[in-house]
């Protein structure tokens, strides 16, 4: 499978560097580049890329706003956000906007390419520092209270709800299968069902919703979930 990728960054040199790394791969093709969020939204509509590598800080429409628009479309691309700014606000806003991953721009080429493949496959990827911040954020206080997705939890079966707590705890399908003594295929069926019922696109978005709704609670860094 050849993945089509768009690269969005307001710095031409940075954009060209990422594009060169990606285009050198046999299973990836850079189909377009954009220097700001508005151009990215317009170009993505024409090119329908599988994955968009998105900068955050750009003139005009920034990467977070562009991500929110793109992921609200039918058959949206996967968005992998890259930024030099390892700040809580960017991590949370990017993920809430619908991004499937968040990496820092100093990431190694191999990690960037791995991240693209992971989000293209419907999974999620977070820079280690971003993952620690996400856990720390939810460990810092009580659940935020009812949100629009609260009623969607009621659609889940008891087994799906438990699978969601395991997903939110960071377990992969094989680990969940071992925990519940079921097959990996059955786990995949449960995960696909809960994603559909929660109306979220991937495990990362489901995890955020689970924390937001208080279904699971994070322990402070160094503790146990």
Automatic annotation (TrEMBL):
The Response regulatory domain is annotated at 4-120
- Start and end of every HTH luxR-type domain? 149-214
PROSITE patterns annotated for this entry?
A: HTH_LUXR_1, HTH_LUXR_2, RESPONSE_REGULATORY
4-aspartylphosphate, modified sites: 55
Name by which UniProt lists this protein: DNA-binding response regulator
**Domain of life here?**
Bacteria
Q: Which BP terms in the Gene Ontology apply to this protein?
A: phosphorelay signal transduction system; regulation of DNA-templated transcription
Note the Gene3D superfamilies from the entry.
3.40.50.2300
């Amino acid at each position: 499978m050849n993945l089509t990728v768009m690269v969005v960054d307001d710095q031409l040199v940075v954009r060209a560097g990422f594009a060169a790394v990606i285009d050198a791969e046999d299973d990836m093709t850079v189909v377009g580049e954009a220097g700001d969020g508005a151009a990215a939204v317009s170009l993505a509509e024409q090119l329908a890329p599988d994955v968009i590598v998105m900068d955050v800080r750009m003139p005009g429409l920034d990467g977070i706003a562009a991500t929110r628009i793109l992921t609200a479309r039918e058959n949206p691309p996967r968005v992998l956000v890259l930024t030099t700014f390892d700040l809580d606000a960017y991590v949370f806003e990017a993920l809430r906007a619908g991004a499937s991953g968040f990496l820092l721009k100093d990431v190694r080429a191999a990690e960037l390419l791995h991240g693209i493949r992971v989000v293209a496959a419907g999974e999620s990827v977070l820079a280690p520092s971003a993952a620690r911040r996400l856990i720390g954020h939810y460990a810092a206080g009580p659940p935020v209270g009812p949100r629009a997705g609260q009623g969607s939890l009621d659609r889940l079966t008891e087994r799906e709800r438990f699978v969601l707590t395991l997903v939110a705890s960071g377990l992969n399908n094989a680990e969940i299968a071992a925990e519940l003594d079921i097959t990996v295929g059955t786990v995949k069926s449960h995960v696909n069902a809960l994603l559909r019922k929660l109306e979220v696109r991937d495990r990362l978005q489901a995890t955020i919703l689970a924390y937001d709704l208080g279904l699971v609670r994070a322990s402070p860094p160094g503790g146990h979930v």
